[in-house]
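Customer escalation, tier 2.

The customer says the design service returned an amino acid string that "doesn't look like it belongs to this structure." They asked us to rerun it and document both sides in this ticket. The original structure tokens are below, unchanged.
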């Protein structure tokens, strides 16, 4: 049976922000540091919060987080900006808040993660490859059959090794060429849009509609999270629910005093935050089982 923590680590290596947050919070629990993260503008924006400034000593926190993230080696994440502040009970959308009021931060530092070398990538791939035979499970067989089976295993392992080398080489080539291809595709789409459509007032997109009414977007996320919580079973699913409740709470916190639902939003900030914490606790319980 697969360890749930292995599944979370696999998702973190694939670039799942929710899984990265879970691992960071687990590793930093002894230091009583809570982390929140979002991927924006091509980098992982990370917020570290604690009740006292002494817990957020800059060199210690930056060094520890860099070691954790480089051990995870999340796909397509190289630049990380680490921000720190004293924990706030009622929080707005934190990335927007610290962008508007950077003076509220204790400190902020951007780091670049060291990319793991090819040998470590291959070692990790062999470690997690379920196709490799388990030697301890082999029954006792005659020596002739054992030699034949040994040759078969060596051939299989060699074939898998060659396949992995080809896959890794293709992946590295894709990582190098992907930004150029994406930029070229976006440029072509923008040019075709400019030439094919007359100038007119842009119609509101779903993102702009939801950002203009954070209350409605928060309610929508809460309804989805409540429905998904009735069927969630794995630690990864509970982590996704925790992130969804967290986002809904942040959106409620962004409601201004002049909004007609401001009083309701204030109550739901704490309610959704508690739901997020309950989902995180459930994820931890699933991991321990």
């Amino acid at each position: 049976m697969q360890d749930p923590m292995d599944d979370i680590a696999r998702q973190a290596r694939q670039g799942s922000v929710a899984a990265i947050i879970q691992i960071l919070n687990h590793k930093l629990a002894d230091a009583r540091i809570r982390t929140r993260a979002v991927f924006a503008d091509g980098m992982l924006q990370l917020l570290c919060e604690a009740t006292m400034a002494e817990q957020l000593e800059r060199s210690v926190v930056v060094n520890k987080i860099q070691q954790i993230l480089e051990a995870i080696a999340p796909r397509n994440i190289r630049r990380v900006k680490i921000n720190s502040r004293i924990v706030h009970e009622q929080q707005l959308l934190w990335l927007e808040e610290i962008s508007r009021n950077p003076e509220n931060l204790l400190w902020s530092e951007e780091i670049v993660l060291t990319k793991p070398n090819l040998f470590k990538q291959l070692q990790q791939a062999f470690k997690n490859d379920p196709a490799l035979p388990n030697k301890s499970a082999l029954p006792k067989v005659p020596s002739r059959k054992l030699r034949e089976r040994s040759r078969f295993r060596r051939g299989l392992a060699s074939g898998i090794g060659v396949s992995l080398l080809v896959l890794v080489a293709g992946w590295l080539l894709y990582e190098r060429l992907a930004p150029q291809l994406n930029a070229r595709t976006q440029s072509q789409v923008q040019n075709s849009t400019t030439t094919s459509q007359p100038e007119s007032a842009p119609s509101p997109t779903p993102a702009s509609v939801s950002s203009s009414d954070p209350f409605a977007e928060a309610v929508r996320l809460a309804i989805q999270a409540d429905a998904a919580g009735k069927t969630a079973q794995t630690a990864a699913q509970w982590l996704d629910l925790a992130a969804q409740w967290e986002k809904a709470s942040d959106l409620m916190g962004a409601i201004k005093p002049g909004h007609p639902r401001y009083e309701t939003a204030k109550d739901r900030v704490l309610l959704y935050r508690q739901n997020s914490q309950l989902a995180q606790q459930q994820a931890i319980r699933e991991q321990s089982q």
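Tier 2 assessment: The sequence is consistent with the input. The CA atoms of residues 119 and 125 lie 10 Å apart. The chain is about 60% helix and 10% strand. Sent an explanation to the customer and offered a walkthrough call.
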